Amino acid sequence: MTSFIMRPSKIQPENEVIGFSGSPRKNGNSDILLKSILSGVSQENITSDYLNLTNIQFQGCIGCERCRKDKICTGLFDGMSLIYNKIISSKGLVLVSPTHNYNITSWMKAFIDRLYCFYNFENDRPRSWSSQFSNQGRKAIIAAICEQESTEDMGFTLEAMKKPLEALGYEIVGELSVFKIFDKAKVKDNNKTIEEAFQLGHKLAQSIK
Fold first, then answer.
1. Pairing of strands 139-145, 90-98
2. I need a surface site. Which of 10, 76, 120, 199 has the fewest CB within 10 A?
3. DSSP letters of 135-150?
4. Contacts of 80 (CB under 8 A, 6+ apart)
């Protein structure tokens, strides 16, 4: 059922950007930040698209390990199966998540776990590994928004997106931390933050050209 999904090793990603919001509050602060970043991408005439992960019917990785042989997720067929090709074909990636209990949201965590299928594993012990995305010039922006006022309060939110993406072969070309904002869509009133997000998108677009 997943034979239509491309294999990363067989393609060269396009100068395109795909963004994902991990917020369950649609059209809220995370979605606004994501759209602001992608507005900066568009200024460089780079094609972009975005999705709120709560609009996708998918589940977390079930650890079946079939992807070690198949090089793509074949243990599940759901909403992630329908967006893998877009991830594979886009050189740029943007992830935005609010802080939930010092970390990314459950939707963003499940999404990142489903990227596990892009690792290659050898048969030694402990298993050596590499990424199917390595050496493809992939770049990423990550952003997090927190109601509280310090990096301590934000906890692992940025790191939980940064470390897996770097392991997959993405270069993180920009990060954005936003504090002391909770009310829905309130971030749009913070011109400095919106401009910073826009400039990060501009930087991402330039980096993948």
1. parallel
2. 10
3. TS--EEEEEEE-SSSS
4. 56, 58, 73, 111, 114
Q: Tokens representing 200?
A: 């990060």
For 122-139, the pLDDT digits (tens) are 989 998 999 999 999 999
Q: Strand, helix or coil at 201?
A: helix
Range of the domain at 111: 13-208
- Please count the structural domains in the chain: 1
- In-domain check, residue 6: no
Residue 40 phi, psi (nearest 5): -65, -35
In this predicted model, what pLDDT tens digit does every residue of 69-92 receive, in sequence order? Answer: 999 999 999 999 999 999 999 999
* Sequence-ordered list of residues with C-beta below 8 angstroms from that of 100, at least 6 positions apart, any chain: 106
Enter the tokens of residue 90: 């886009």
Q: What's the pTM value of the predicted model, to 2 decimals? A: 0.95
Q: Is residue 5 part of a domain?
A: no
Say what the pLDDT of residue 1 is.
Answer: 43
CATH number at residue 98: 3.40.50.360
